[in-house]
Design goal:
Family: Belongs to the NrfD family.
Number of domains: 1
CATH architecture: Up-down Bundle
Radius of gyration: 22 Å
Membrane topology: Multi-pass membrane protein
Strand content: under 5%
CATH class: Mainly Alpha
GO cellular component, one term: plasma membrane
Number of helices: 14
Number of strands: 0
CATH topology: Formate dehydrogenase/DMSO reductase fold
Helix content: 55-70%
Pfam families: NrfD (PF03916)
Order of helices and strands: HHHHHHHHHHHHHH
Subcellular location: Cell membrane
Structural class: mainly alpha
Distance between the termini: 13 Å
Length: about 400
């Protein structure tokens, strides 16, 4: 009964703290709410008229939704770069940031699931993914493995921070024997969610653009660059607008992770380009379309060359320690690297896999306003969820939220 009473008090205090804030906080939450409502309106049109209102066709059946899903799986997995040093290696410099990173992982996973629902056309078909009821096809289908690992990782990233914050809310220390095994499991699981997502693409024999042995490792490298880059940007905002102070050395250590991962990602990109263009075959046509265009079709050229330029610029700047330790340069690099990898793992990966089609036909894909609206709504949902989680966690960590026994 006492545990339920404490939980009820935590819920009440959390609702109280997230419903109050400064003018900037209220404007932020109001703007996110407006964008979510706009996304819901666009989604209602899609529900009524079907996926025909999107730019996807039978030629290009995955577009903006799956592009964002693929990218956000990496953002979610990146939390492990803070979990492992904090919980497993006992590095206290990461301790301040780990709960923020796990909150970001939860928001990213919620967005992942929302993009999957949007891409399926509507929630009415989700029963197909329920084991024992739908056509789950386990263990042969990689998609079912993806469903399992994503939901499992979401559970882990909710349960561990909740236990720690629940103990801190009561003014007690968390027992390492309870959360460390889960933290170790989350490290392995984080690698698993991204590898399984990569295998989902690699296993499609009719799409030679994805039949690449480096796809899984490169997924991980890009994830461990973009995810921590976003965490640095979020920590910078938290340092500026809240009482939760993150030390410089914490951000500098995360920046080193971003730098190494970005360098590895760039090396793998060069390796892929060599494989595609040094001795090209007819299987290289998707890569030619992406980087140079085919038969006058050049829709993706500005996207991919912008991504590569930003990727190279950010990686080069971060490589020099003096520039990396300048926080203005660091924040700029993290932002452009995040954008570059979003393009690279989105339009630069998903769409070219369908072009040209199995019969050589080139049908380009351009997202419609409905797709953009739904996408913005889902991103706003993720930002809304993260803001609520972060505000509650910060309130507990700085001592503003504490259980009062009289209640």
């Amino acid at each position: 009964m006492k545990t339920l009473r404490v939980f009820g008090s935590l819920v009440k205090d959390s609702l109280d703290i997230v419903s109050k804030g400064s003018m900037r906080y209220n404007i932020w939450m109001g703007a996110l709410t407006f964008i979510m409502l706009l996304g819901m309106y666009c989604y209602s049109i899609q529900l009524e008229e079907g996926l025909s209102v999107t730019g996807m066709t039978d030629r290009v059946s995955w577009g903006l939704y799956i592009s964002n899903f693929t990218f956000l799986v990496g953002v979610a997995a990146a939390a492990v770069m803070l979990v492992m040093p904090t919980y497993v290696l006992k590095d206290i410099d990461f301790k301040q940031a780990v709960l923020i990173g796990e909150g970001l992982a939860v928001a990213a996973l919620i967005m992942c699931l929302a993009f999957v629902v949007a891409d399926m056309g509507g929630p009415s078909v989700l029963w197909h993914m329920i084991p024992g009821i739908g056509v789950f096809n386990f263990p042969a289908s990689m998609l079912t493995w993806d469903v399992i690992v994503l939901n499992g990782y979401l559970f882990i990233n909710i349960s561990i921070p909740f236990y720690i914050l629940f103990r801190h809310y009561q003014g007690k220390d968390a027992n390492p024997k309870v959360y460390v095994p889960g933290a170790i499991l989350s490290v392995l699981w984080a690698v698993g969610i991204h590898l399984v997502t990569a295998f989902l693409y690699q296993g499609l024999q009719a799409r030679p653009f994805w039949n690449n042995a480096l796809l899984g490792p490169r997924f991980l490298a890009s994830a461990f660059a973009a995810g921590p880059a976003l965490i640095i940007l979020v920590l910078a905002i938290i340092r500026s607008f809240t009482a939760f102070k993150i030390e410089d050395k914490t951000i500098k250590k995360i920046a080193l992770i971003v730098t190494v991962a970005a360098q590895i990602n760039l090396i793998m990109l060069v390796s892929e380009l060599f494989k595609e263009f040094y001795a090209p075959t007819h299987h290289s046509e998707s890569a030619f379309y992406l980087f140079f265009g085919l038969e006058g079709k050049t829709a993706l050229l500005p996207w991919i060359w912008t991504a590569i330029s930003l990727n190279v610029l950010a990686t080069v700047l971060l490589t020099f320690g003096k520039l990396r330790n300048n926080f203005k340069v660091l924040y700029f690099c993290c932002f452009i690297l995040f954008v570059a990898i979003w393009i690279e793992k989105g339009f630069g990966l998903i769409v070219p896999g369908f072009i040209p089609g199995p019969y050589g036909k080139i049908a380009e894909y351009t997202p419609t306003g409905i797709e953009v609206g739904v996408t913005l709504g889902i991103w706003a949902l993720g930002a809304f969820v993260f803001t609520i989680l972060a505000k509650t966690a910060i309130g507990i960590e700085v001592g503003k939220l504490r259980f009062r026994a009289k209640e």
